């Protein structure tokens, strides 16, 4: 039989792997199935490659260089400097994937730089998984439950820039929902693909298994609407390509998860829309309003230059704004003392010469709170203030003294707000206008007392102490390591670590779902095989998911 023509029901294999396809080849039945090498490409795809810098005030035209494009034909989609992914090797398509929806999805994921997909097989998604296994550029990683698959895609997106998971209809979708909500809270583009009902079942009033016994198939969709930025239900081939491309581009543009449900019987049907050369997915360039940018920079410079001891504070939205380098450029130029909110640890280099630690109210790094709370002006880049980060809203930072820089606007104290301004543009422009002021950092140096070099020895029969263990952990950290910190005690202990250049650091402070780090460690480690990933998990959180990891 020709596998491309099996369209009315999902392809039923016990586990959708290349091994089972190979076994099928050995049977005496006549088949039209080939065996594919599932190794990665020899060249590791890149997610982002940036080749130029610009001055947003003097050369606004170069902002077009930040347009994103997926090149799927082997040539650049335009003259943009930022390109998403690399083209797959020519001839990578096979009989199984050519001109079909399943093959198109697999190729699109590879073009994004996704080389690993985290999945849980179910009868509604088995055909899709066969296509993913057949794609040479993809590695399908089976997980024991959907929650861990979602957590793994979350961890993968933190390192690679985008992640993907595949689950089955409703029973799998509702299981992965908690992980997708966590990814939404941390602005992570995760593509959640669900194998959906047969397209012929829509509108028939039939009751399907894996549901709550209702003929309404939209329950899963409604649940995902509040935790994803785009939802696509694909139950016909005519607009399937458009919906998939819209979902992918929206995930990248909004830096949020998306939900894609695909009818299980459509994946193997050849369709003309998938036989043509894929059209590049491109995002229109985001640019700041020039007049608003100039006005915001002028007002901010006047505000901060009149201060005696201003400080800079980095927040978690530096990630979604892609403004980490611009923040450092401003810190280098102005000379302010630099602190970081606990939710932004790892986003601001702790080896910066003016770094003073984590500002976390009464549990801040030693001497950090004294400097921040005594400052007469603060520039807060990307803050998200909740009860966790403010220690129950007990921090003493005053709104009237703060310049708050959000990804798309600037708020100056109790005064004006300037919109349509990208954080990166604003920080770069401000770095060229501020007067240098090192007063706050000089005050920090006057009161700072280095930690003593206690031997911290333990008697062989003495229980291991946390401070002793973390002393050794600190010595383990290098540019080739990454730290994953679980909700709870691990937050507080890992905040004390001093991260060397190149050391990764991830945790989920906004959503705080216990057990997140178990699956996230899998995804993060798979995305950066060259790094040693060290996870810190309390025993309670560990027990939540380790039996199902």
Task: Describe the protein in words.
The protein has helices at residues 18-26, 101-112, 126-134, 146-160, 173-185, 219-224, 240-254, 290-305, 317-320, 324-334, 368-374, 423-431, 439-447, 466-476, 489-495, 516-527, 539-545, and strands spanning 68-69, 116-119, 139-142, 163-168, 190-196, 231-234, 258-263, 282-283, 311-314, 337-340, 355-358, 378-381, 402-406, 409-412, 417-419, 481-485, 504-507, 532-536. The longest helix has 16 residues, at 290-305. α5 links the parallel β4 (163-168) and β5. It is of the alpha/beta class and 549 residues long. The chain starts with 17 loop residues before the first helix and ends with a helix.
Give descriptors for this structure:
31% helix, globular, 7-stranded mixed sheet, 549 residues, 17 helices, 6-stranded parallel sheet, 18 strands, alpha/beta, disordered N terminus, single chain
